[in-house]
Q: What sequence folds into this?
């Protein structure tokens, strides 16, 4: 039995890895190969999975849908040639499976691009839809109000966030299973007669810790306390600048500017900032930006402090899961990591960035996807007041604690999807 995993982005690679690692643990595990359509697949390589075909990092990092200039840069960087090479690789892999009469399946993770790749192979395939959710259009109470009349008009007219040509690809006889990212999207797809399964979201398979709001008493103002007493408690904030350079460095500068605003207005309350950094980022660049923003190295390794406030800042490489569970809220300019954090039932404050991923347009869409768990601050000088208002609103924090798991689903999805894939392989 063989399985080829196609994914098109850093976040998609991370999600796919959860399923592939679960597959690898099963007694009847297939031979697993991967083809990252976007990027070079470093995450797969670190976990020992075999990459087939040509891979290459493009200037946009995979975010061509957000900026036409990014598409032009990618074309100049060899996008068309890369795509043709990758399509050829998938066809050759499929042909080899057919010639050897081996049970095989293609797992497409992401959006319509890997789904198209899987369909053109002629083999059985399954789709994990990471990019789209009905929450972009509506929630359980109805449709979202948009500024522009045209926004999402086609999706509304055709009945869902997945457009007719995407649903056509999912309706082919070779498409054996669809795994949407949340229940509301699954329910919509099943109304079109598609084989969609509400197995949860692999993004939430961070570890075995329960999805609960870890320390609500630290944030919310207790009814038996005075406001000044509640606001004097320590607070832990996770900083998420993103994972791709050079955008992550620009985001880091934006976040540090926001921390200046917090330092001035929260000088009475100890705050520990935990920074979850991707292993692909240069720590020296992160360090230099801290020094330029009046942070200095503290006594402990990878820890920084300021002379004008009691706050501490700690840098951590590949410690997202640990830091996410330890933090009360996040200041975020990231995609997948922000969604995972929200899924723990915690709030995140987001700031405007320059892209190519984290733009004002992306941030606005993220607020529709994640609902009240996201607080988008457009002006840097509003960060402290926004945080103060949030900390005082225990009703809002309770609602956020319920909203996150509802939007992002329960953990354990990777195991459920892995078992379903092996079932399909065993009964082609």
A:
């Amino acid at each position: 039995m063989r399985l080829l995993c196609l994914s098109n982005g850093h976040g998609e690679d991370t999600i796919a890895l959860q399923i592939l690692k679960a597959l690898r643990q099963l007694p009847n595990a297939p031979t697993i190969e991967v083809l990252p359509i976007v990027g070079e697949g470093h995450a797969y390589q670190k976990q020992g999975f075999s990459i087939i075909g040509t891979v290459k990092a493009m200037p946009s990092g995979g975010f061509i849908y957000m900026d036409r200039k990014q598409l032009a840069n990618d074309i100049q960087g060899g996008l068309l040639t890369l795509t043709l090479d990758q399509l050829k690789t998938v066809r050759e892999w499929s042909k080899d499976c057919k010639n050897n009469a081996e049970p095989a399946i293609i797992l497409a993770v992401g959006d319509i691009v890997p789904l198209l790749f899987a369909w053109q192979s002629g083999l059985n395939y399954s789709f994990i839809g990471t990019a789209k959710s009905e929450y972009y259009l509506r929630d359980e109470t109805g449709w979202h109000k948009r500024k522009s009349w045209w926004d999402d008009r086609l999706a509304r007219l055709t009945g869902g966030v997945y457009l007719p040509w995407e649903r056509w690809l999912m309706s082919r006889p070779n498409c054996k299973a669809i795994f949407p990212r949340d229940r509301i999207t699954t329910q919509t797809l099943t109304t079109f007669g598609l084989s969609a399964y509400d197995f949860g979201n692999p993004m939430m398979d961070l570890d075995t810790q329960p999805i609960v709001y870890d320390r609500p008493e630290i944030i919310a103002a207790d009814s038996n306390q005075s406001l000044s007493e509640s606001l004097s408690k320590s607070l832990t904030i996770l900083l998420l600048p993103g994972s791709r350079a050079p955008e992550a460095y620009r985001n880091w500068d934006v976040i540090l500017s926001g921390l200046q605003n917090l330092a001035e207005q929260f000088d009475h309350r100890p705050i520990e900032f935990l920074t979850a950094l991707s292993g692909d980022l240069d720590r020296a660049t992160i360090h230099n930006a801290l020094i330029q923003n009046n942070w200095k190295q503290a006594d402990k390794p990878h820890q920084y402090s300021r002379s004008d406030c009691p706050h501490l800042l700690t840098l951590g490489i590949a410690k997202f899961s640990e830091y996410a569970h330890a933090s009360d809220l996040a200041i975020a300019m990231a995609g997948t990591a922000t969604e995972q954090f929200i899924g723990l039932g915690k709030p995140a404050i987001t700031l405007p960035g320059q892209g190519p991923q984290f733009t004002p347009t992306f941030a606005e869409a993220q607020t529709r996807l994640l609902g009240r768990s996201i607080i988008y601050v457009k002006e840097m000088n509003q960060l402290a007041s926004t945080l103060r208002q949030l900390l005082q609103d225990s009703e809002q924090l309770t609602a956020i604690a319920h909203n996150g798991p509802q939007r992002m689903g329960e953990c354990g999805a990777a195991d459920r999807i892995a078992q379903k894939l092996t079932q399909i392989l065993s009964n082609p």
